[in-house]
From TrEMBL:
Assembly information from the UniProt record: Tetramer of 2 alpha and 2 beta subunits.
Functional description taken from the UniProt entry: The pyruvate dehydrogenase complex catalyzes the overall conversion of pyruvate to acetyl-CoA and CO(2). It contains multiple copies of three enzymatic components: pyruvate dehydrogenase (E1), dihydrolipoamide acetyltransferase (E2) and lipoamide dehydrogenase (E3).
GO CC, alphabetical: chloroplast
Protein name per the record: pyruvate dehydrogenase (acetyl-transferring)
PANTHER family found in the cross-reference section: PYRUVATE DEHYDROGENASE E1 COMPONENT BETA SUBUNIT (PTHR43257), PYRUVATE DEHYDROGENASE E1 COMPONENT SUBUNIT BETA (PTHR43257:SF2)
Required cofactor names: thiamine diphosphate
Keyword Ribonucleoprotein: no
GO molecular function: metal ion binding; pyruvate dehydrogenase (acetyl-transferring) activity
InterPro entries: THDP-binding (IPR029061), Transketo_C/PFOR_II (IPR009014), Transketolase-like_Pyr-bd (IPR005475), Transketolase_C (IPR033248)
Transketolase-like pyrimidine-binding domain residues: 83-258
Record gene name: 11411402
């Protein structure tokens, strides 16, 4: 394993051994990291020609984050090409591997097999076996190897064949990935992306239907994002790879074959911004991942009933985009949270606490949170549906809120 690690490092040209590990700014062709003088706020600055713009800011506790410039224009208004979500992930990954030789991929069957959901298909042939590294079935080992590679200057993408399997690497993710930048006094950065399929599928059984957002959200030092469309899948993938922070990218197993037209030109999304899916006036519905589509299905019924819901895909699960969320609440004064995560200790619970802490005075009704039931996901299809929020429940909740 040591020999393999040395070969991987040599092939990808990490930092020179003589290079000090003191904090330095890593400059790329289109992105670099700026640290504030008080070392408390990191800003990602995107460069386009001679101009610069802020793509987002870390949230300030007990306050609303300052809004960055507007996000990239909707793909629907521009010519582009159609991709399935898993193809959009691969396109973003391939572009970053071409741009930066330090980017590499590791995981089970990610090489010549192309990944269990084909996100890495054909990348081994293009970039070689050392940059697209097939690993043994040992999540703890290859996750640790990826974190170690990140410490030397590489930018690994660690794929879990199923996100539930990454619980075997929980020690590496929590005690190493999230803490090493802090415990080393800033001498090491951990620019690693951890990604893979998760969520409740169609009769995949309990062990393959886990929602791990609640497991990882309490780990200090880790960012979490969830993609829901091919457009934001590619943009978030590229942003996660370029980030100097460890990022967990959640992909839903039932969204991989979702098709959308995305721009031909390059774009990178912010890791800390929510997406306004549908403006409205009567109630703010906060959701992410697959539940975005259950919410939009319910929204059609709600409009026919005379309601005007505002739908926000929060995308950033940690930290929350309290600017976008707060502005919506100040307008609608009612909040419904819809998630596939568990109710106890889930994303909805954390979001409820953040909203109550920051925007309680703007609420005209108690926050309602619709979550999956706190049971292992059943195998039987009918029972599986009962554990996950359905569109009819969303309609009923909005009617209750707006009474």
């Amino acid at each position: 394993m040591a020999t393999l690690f040395q070969a991987l490092g040599a092939a990808l040209t990490p930092f020179s051994p003589s290079t000090s590990f003191q904090s330095k700014e890593r400059k790329c062709s289109s992105i670099f990291v700026v640290r504030s003088s008080d070392a408390k706020v990191n800003q990602v600055v995107l460069k386009s020609g001679g101009a610069t713009r802020k793509a987002g800011q870390l949230l300030i506790p007990n306050a609303v984050a300052t809004q960055g410039s507007s996000s990239v224009a909707s793909a629907a208004s521009k010519p582009g090409h159609e991709l399935l979500l898993f193809e959009a992930l691969r396109e973003g990954l391939e572009e970053e591997m071409e741009r930066d030789p330090c980017v590499c991929v590791m995981g089970e069957d990610v090489g010549h097999y192309g990944g269990s959901y084909k996100v890495t298909r054909n990348l081994a042939e293009k970039f070689g076996d050392l940059r697209v590294l097939d690993t043994p079935i040992a999540e703890n080992a290859f996750t640790g190897m990826g974190i170690g590679a990140a410490m030397t200057g590489l930018r690994p993408i660690i794929e879990g064949m199923n996100m539930g399997f990454l619980l075997l690497a929980f020690n590496q993710i929590s005690n190493n990935c999230g803490m090493l930048h802090y415990t080393s006094g800033g001498q090491f950065k951990i620019p690693v992306v951890i990604r893979g399929p998760g969520g409740v599928g169609r009769q995949l059984g309990a062990e393959h239907s886990q929602r791990l957002e609640s497991y990882f959200q309490s780990i200090p030092g880790i960012q979490m994002v969830a993609c829901s469309t091919p457009y934001n899948a590619k943009g978030l993938m590229k942003a996660a790879i370029r980030s100097d922070n460890p990022v967990i990218l959640f992909e839903h197993v039932l969204l991989y074959n979702l098709k959308e037209r995305i721009p031909d030109e390059e774009y990178v999304l912010s890791l800390e911004e929510a997406e306004m899916v549908r403006p409205g006036e009567h109630v703010t519905i906060l959701t992410y991942s697959r539940m975005r589509y259950h919410v939009m299905q319910a929204a059609k019924t709600l409009v026919n009933k005379g309601y005007d819901p505002e739908v926000i895909d929060i995308r950033s699960l940690k930290p929350f985009d309290l600017h976008t969320i707060g502005n919506s609440i100040k307008k609608t004064h009612r909040v419904l949270i819809v998630e596939e995560c568990m109710r106890t200790g889930g994303i909805g619970a954390s979001l409820t606490a953040a909203i109550t802490e920051n925007f309680h005075d703007y609420l005209d009704a108690p926050i309602i949170c619709l979550s999956s039931q706190d049971v292992p996901t059943p195998y039987a299809g009918t029972l599986e549906e009962w554990t996950v929020v359905q569109p009819a429940q969303i309609v009923t909740a909005v009617e209750q809120l707006c009474q």
